[in-house]
Each structure stands twice: as structure tokens, then as C-alpha cells.
Design brief:
The chain is mostly helical and 313 residues long. It is built from 12 helices and no strands. Helix 2 packs parallel to helix 4 and helix 5 crosses helix 7. The protein is globular.
């Protein structure tokens, strides 16, 4: 039987609240699902459904009802943790499952944003129905923030952890699989892949120096990275993980819940558009500088190897 730690992607990228709560409770749920022979994707769908229902409770201006929504969201997030843990412990990981998991998170947040905005508009908020424009902008920011945070956490597992369980993919590979599907025979699968194509293209568009670094490392070393490269990548980028974690789920939700608790949930949109976007800009700027350094390091190592081979010849 797997242990809780064996169902992590890697401890480096796990948040404290995940390690001490979500992964532990999710592990118990995953064991129960395994016993009942439930599929990971079913656990994902159940979690999404609970999360969408949770969003409805943010429509009300009653803390007791808001608290129910918060509790349901926590349950939803337990399912979100358990689906991946179940997939890893049973060897049922799949790209479609990862796509569904990511899309589900967006749907859950969309439900919360919609209900918060709808309440604001119906109760004569200062900007009225224009709040939906603000919510859409916040949602677009949320999408980019989460996409880049997830991308670079997976990059850390690929280049900064020996034997890390990375799910890093190239957009070209995703597009190739998308093109192999037909709308007639694989409508929903192709629809999910269409969303995922846009997701991966966006990630690569906002990480040009990482793409150069990745190409350089793969050409020079293939899948066998030198320990020096791994160690340097790790030391440069491990300090950035706390910012990426903040831009994914737990930090975002805790901030939102705080504004809900004090009765001003729409202020969260402002935080998302300002503080979180500034955090993303700063961390990506630093990340790209780190990517350049690793590229130069690999090129220098390659030049040394080439010079040595010339001397031997």
C-alpha cells in the first residue's frame, strides 16, 4: 500500500497546508475510492460539482451561508487532491485527467466569481453590472497566474529534482494529439484538448527564455542532466516556489475568504488585478533571468567539453 508521501508529486512543490491537511485527508478518500474501484476522473467530477455548488453560497450577504460555501469549497479541494493521489497510487494517470482537473478548478472559481458579482450587481453596487467586466478581467488574470505558476512548478520537478514526477509538456506535442482527434468521434475529448492547447501555448508564450533553456539542455544532455545543472537550477528557483504556490489555489482562496468574511468580496478582484499580477510579473522576470543563467552554464559546459575533445584528438 502506498504511503501519503508516495502520492505527492514531490515534497518540494507541496504547500504546507496540503502536506498537513489536504494530502492526508485526500489520501484517506483516495484509499476509499480505490476500494470501491472508482476512477480518478469520477472523483474529479464530484469535486467540481461540489465546488460549483459552493460558489452559489457566495451570492448571499450572510456570513453563516458564506461559511457553508467555504466548507463546501474545502471539501471540493479535498476531492481535487484525492483524484491525483488515486491516479498515482493506482497507475491511472492520464493527460485527459490532468486537463479535466485543471479545467475543473477554473469552473469552480468561475462559479464563485459569478455569484459574488451577481449579488453585487443586484444590490446596487457602485459600478452596478460593470462588475462583471472587472470579474472577467480578474478571471483572465487568475487564468494566466495559475497557468504560469503550474508551469514553473512542473519545470522545477523536471530540471530541479532528480526523478521528479513532472507533467511538463510542449505545446507542439499537445497540438499533435489534438489534431489526431476528430470532432465526430471524440467531441468532448477534442473540446478538452482545445482548451489545453490554448493553455500550453499561453504558457510557452510567456516563457521565451525558458524555451531557449529547455531546448539547449535537451540538445546537449537529452534526459540525463548533469548534477551541476540540476543543483544550480534548484538553488536558483527553489526560493520562487512560495510565490508560485501563492498564485495557485490556497493563497488565493484564503485571500478571497478573508474579504468574504469582512463583507467585501469584490475587493478580491482588485487584489487579483494588482497585487497578484505584480507578483506574477516580478517572479517571471526573476525566473527568466535564472533561465538565462542556466542556458549560459550549459553552453559554457558544452564549450569546455568541445575544447577537451579537440585536445584529445
Amino acid at each position: 500500500m502506498s504511503t501519503v508521501a508516495e502520492t505527492y508529486k514531490a515534497r518540494d512543490v507541496e504547500e504546507v497546508i496540503d502536506i498537513w491537511f489536504y494530502r492526508r485527508v485526500g489520501y484517506r478518500l483516495a484509499l476509499a475510492a480505490k476500494y470501491l474501484k472508482l476512477k480518478p476522473n469520477l472523483i474529479t467530477v464530484i469535486g467540481i460539482t461540489i465546488g460549483v455548488i459552493a460558489g452559489h453560497f457566495f451570492f448571499y450577504n450572510t456570513l453563516a451561508l458564506n461559511a457553508i460555501g467555504m466548507g463546501l469549497w474545502v471539501i471540493s479541494n479535498i476531492f481535487d487532491s484525492a483524484d491525483g493521489q488515486l491516479a498515482r497510487m493506482t497507475g491511472q494517470t492520464s493527460q485527459l485527467g490532468r486537463i479535466l482537473d485543471g479545467l475543473g478548478g477554473s469552473v469552480v472559481f468561475a462559479s464563485m466569481y459569478f455569484h459574488i458579482s451577481f449579488h453585487y450587481a443586484l444590490n446596487d453596487g457602485v459600478i452596478g453590472w460593470w462588475i462583471f467586466i472587472v470579474a472577467l478581467a480578474a478571471g483572465a488574470s487568475h487564468s494566466l497566474q495559475s497557468a504560469m505558476a503550474d508551469y514553473y512548478r512542473n519545470a522545477f520537478l523536471r530540471f530541479g529534482v532528480k526523478g521528479g514526477k513532472s507533467e511538463l509538456e510542449r505545446a507542439s506535442a499537445v497540438i499533435e494529439r489534438y489534431n489526431q482527434l476528430t470532432w465526430r468521434r471524440n467531441f468532448f475529448t477534442k473540446l478538452f484538448y482545445k482548451v489545453y492547447v490554448n493553455h500550453t501555448v499561453q504558457q510557452e508564450t510567456f516563457s521565451p527564455k525558458f524555451q531557449l533553456m529547455r531546448d539547449t539542455l535537451e540538445v546537449r544532455y537529452g534526459n540525463k542532466l548533469p548534477d551541476a545543472i540540476v543543483s544550480r537550477y534548484r538553488s536558483l528557483n527553489r526560493p520562487l516556489l512560495k510565490y508560485y504556490n501563492y498564485l495557485t489555489i490556497n493563497g488565493r482562496v484564503l485571500t478571497l475568504f478573508a474579504f468574504v468574511a469582512i463583507g467585501y468580496p469584490t475587493l478580491f478582484f482588485i487584489v487579483e488585478l494588482t497585487l497578484m499580477n505584480l507578483t506574477l510579473w516580478a517572479v517571471l522576470r526573476k525566473q527568466e533571468k535564472n533561465n538565462q543563467e542556466i542556458t549560459r552554464m550549459a553552453e559554457l559546459e558544452g564549450d569546455k567539453t568541445f575544447s577537451l575533445s579537440e585536445a584529445v584528438a
